[in-house]
Amino acid sequence: xxxxxxxxxxxxxxxxxxxxxxxxxxxxxxxxxxxxxxxxxxxxxxxxxxxxxxxxxxxxxxxxxxxxxxxxxxxxxxxxxxxxxxxxxxxxxxxxxxxxxxxxxxxxxxxxxxxxxxxxxxxxxxxxxxxxxxxxxxxxxxxxxxxxxxxxxxxxxxxxxxxxxxxxxxxxxxxxxxxxxxxxxxxxxxxxxxxxxxxxxxxxxxxxxxxxxxxxxxxxxxxxxxxxxxxxxxxxxxxxxxxxxxxxxxxxxxxxxxxxxxxxxxxxxxxxxxxxxxxxxxxxxxxxxxxxxxxxxxxxxxxx
Length: 304
Fold this sequence. Notes:
Helix 1 (38-48) runs antiparallel to helix 9 and helix 8 (239-251) runs antiparallel to helix 10. A four-stranded mixed sheet has the order 2-3-7-6, with helices on one face. Strands 1-8 form a two-stranded antiparallel sheet. Strands 4-5 form a two-stranded antiparallel ribbon. The two termini are 28 Å apart. A hairpin with a 4-residue loop joins strand 6 and strand 7 (147-150). Helices cover 40% and strands 9% of the residues. It is built from ten helices and eight strands. The chain has 304 residues and is of the alpha/beta class.
């Protein structure tokens, strides 16, 4: 993946609270409480990783948006992330470019129905409109405050703990998936899913697969979505990039996680995000078609 070197980056859609304090000393409290040993991590991942719950059975405790002592300061980020050339050199700047491109795309597609929202960069732990979260929670979207949250160390975890190949386009897929949940929230799709829904054809799985599909749709158009000056932020997405995204999807499927990071047994009744094959299928569907209408996971009996 390569960003256009002269493209302008806009850091205003990021709330950088990494140096503000107000967390939990870097250790944090997992969703549902407890620490983040292997078992805790798996429980959190099954609920959250690349998902964000979007109101479906969240076990957050319901605090306000930013906790006491947490203040966003984008000074350093805005100094470091000015142009596409910065995105090619620094992961955090690449995420800024991804956010810009993703929101520009959905703004074009949905028009007045799309309301831009911010991504919060945090480190260790934070308070959100959905409650307390730690870095082990993984990236997530909180419908209560309509913000995306991410500890950027997750991208290292994706490679080191889950065994995914990783890469800039994989990072972009993660962010695009979370903004897919924002789109679902704005369109009222999330309201279709009852709290605590699980199982291979559950509303929770359908919601997650649709967000994967939406990520693929954005990716299809990413090299043509312009910045404020009319130039595309993203210059190139290669076949290897897409292959890496599919590899990541395979490593965060419910079946893969249960088999390799959990009990070793696959229990489809516990699925919340979909199998590896399903996640690959729906990202591919979005990427191949480039059409959000191809992402109607609620209108089909064939989820793959």
